[in-house]
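can u do me a favor
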């Protein structure tokens, strides 16, 4: 059996929209017929895992058959968060082994910080997806800029973490492994801003230096927040599944998801989005 594709959603800063990005990628893949397993390493909050629990409950209550991912059991998240690193890593390895046996794609959502679990997940990645807001506060995790000129000085802590993950894969697998790293601009305001143009220039310079691609993320839209409590995304909306009123903004949101999946190289997820548009 072929090894599953492992996608890690990573950024050591909270509030960048990792879980929002994760649930949209997963639902896009599920509607494309892919077998997906999810592992939520944000042990205390577990937003992604709770989203899919809400999804199952909403679908059952409303008589809909919605695709769901496989969720290996890592036990009580809050209790595990208090356990030592050895126990946490053992639980992760067991969950990862279950996911490997059950899925074609494993998506791992990581916490907003440098933890042993996050490092272990990054070391397994085939693809790392890093969301960031259009802010130099977020960019600071990727690269340091000169406070006077705003010119790029050097890679920062998260770029170094990805470098370590790439090195780990190369050492453990005995060969040069390419981890595809894509940084997506997430939660953008609709209006353009001079700050964003400055940021994009530094992003492109850093991308060449440390080896990531820049891709489109998801804007800050009301529809994403409206659908979250139901365990739904814009990929689920249809004539039958419509818990909120649909507008042209929702069509634009679906196109955003389509562009994201295309940037990640997940072309097989495009047909269901196109058919439902």
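np, heres the sequence
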């Amino acid at each position: 059996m072929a090894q599953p594709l492992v996608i890690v959603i990573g950024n050591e800063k909270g509030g960048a929209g990792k879980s929002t990005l994760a649930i949209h990628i997963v639902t896009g893949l599920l509607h494309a017929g892919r077998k997906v397993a999810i592992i939520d390493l944000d042990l205390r909050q577990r937003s992604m895992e709770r989203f899919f629990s809400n999804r199952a409950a909403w679908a059952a209550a409303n008589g809909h058959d919605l695709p769901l991912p496989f969720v290996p059991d890592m036990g009580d998240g809050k209790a595990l968060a208090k356990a030592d690193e050895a126990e946490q890593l053992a639980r992760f390895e067991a969950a990862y082994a279950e996911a490997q046996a059950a899925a074609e794609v494993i998506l791992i959502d990581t916490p907003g910080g440098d933890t042993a679990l996050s490092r272990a997940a990054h070391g397994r990645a085939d693809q790392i997806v890093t969301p960031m807001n259009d802010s130099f506060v977020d960019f600071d995790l990727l690269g340091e800029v000169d406070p006077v000129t705003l010119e790029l000085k050097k890679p920062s802590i998260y770029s170094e973490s990805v470098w370590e993950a790439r090195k780990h894969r190369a050492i453990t697998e005995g060969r040069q492994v390419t981890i595809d790293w894509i940084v997506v601009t997430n939660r953008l305001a609709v209006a353009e801003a001079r700050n964003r143009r400055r940021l994009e220039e530094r992003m492109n310079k850093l991308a060449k230096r440390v080896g990531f691609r820049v891709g489109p993320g998801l804007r800050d839209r009301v529809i994403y927040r409206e659908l979250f409590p139901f365990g739904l995304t814009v990929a689920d909306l249809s004539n039958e599944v419509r818990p909120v009123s649909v507008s042209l903004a929702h069509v634009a949101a679906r196109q955003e998801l389509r562009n994201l999946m295309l940037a990640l190289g997940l072309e097989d997820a495009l047909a269901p989005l196109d058919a439902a548009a």
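The chain is about 45% helix and 15% strand. hope that helps!!
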